[in-house]
Amino acid sequence: MLKNSLLSIVLLFVFTAFKADKPAYLLFNKAGEKVKYEKILNQMEAADIILFGESHNNPISHWLQLELTKDLFERKGAQLVLGAEMLENDNQVILDEYLDSLISQSTFEKEMRLWPNYKTDYKPLVEFANKNRLKFVATNVPRRYASLVNKKGFEALEELSDEARTFLPPLPISYDSTLNCYESMMHMEGMGNHITPNFPKSQAIKDATMAHFILENWSQGKLFLHFHGSYHSENFESIYWYLKQEKPDLKIFTIHTSSQKNVFELEEENKGKADFTICVDEDMTSTQ
């Protein structure tokens, strides 16, 4: 009996040590210092808005999104509001009908323009909102309008009907072409001479729209947790920039996801991209 107990203790110690030696991810603050999840949670509880930048195909990102949602719900309850880049605002009525139990799950999933990895990566978030009666906002611009901007610039949005403009932020769209998130797009490798000044604008209309619908559904005392690709908030630009243009006093925390060969120390190029960075082992499996 004692022998079996000792064996169990040894195996537990070995297993624990193995896990500690080979973490799948570590968390870092803006300065590149390791930080505990509980400390991040305590800080984020006091936020107005959290911008959670994921790697779209990274399971650690998606798992932590769900865990953070659960933990913030325990602390904030109905004051928690969710939103996502992966859902386009002209589908908000379908999303609301599903969350209000007016249509079935199968009808919802059939009629929404869902991403291919919805069932593995984003469905758990929507279903958590459904179960707990939380507001979930489809924040992104309809993709046809981003395409329109890419072809004809912001000016083309002025030609849309009044009804179509309800899916957009107020026109004209504010835009700073010197922001690194947009300026760098003009020099993307492998694109040759195919990039026009409208290309970064097609990303900016997404950022501006997401920021607009975040603010439309946030009020004092609420906590808006928004999910999007890391690009859309890294270096405190993109969505973050648009939010601050509208409401400079907002308390916003940003999360960034990076992959490295060695997760024990955040590489210099990944420091300062966000308030907190999830550093994931580059060999982590992909969800796409």
Topology order in helix (H) and strand (E) letters: HEHEHEHHHEHHHHEHEE
Uncertain stretches: 1-7, 9-18
Helix content: 40-55%
Q: Given the helix and strand composition, which structural class is it?
A: alpha/beta
Separation of the first and last Cα atoms: 48 Å
Mean of all residue-level pLDDT scores: 92
Please outline the major beta sheet: 7 strands, mixed
Inertia-based shape: globular
Instruction: Give me the number of helical elements.
Output: 11
Using the CA coordinates, give the radius of gyration: 21 Å
Strand content is: 15-25%
Strand order of the largest sheet: 1-7-6-2-5-3-4
Number of strands: 7
Quickly describe the structure.
The chain is α/β, with parallel strands linked by helices. It has helices at 2-21, 37-44, 59-76, 92-99, 105-111, 118-132, 143-152, 162-165, 180-183, 198-216, 239-246, and strands spanning 25-29, 49-54, 80-88, 136-140, 223-229, 252-260, 276-281.
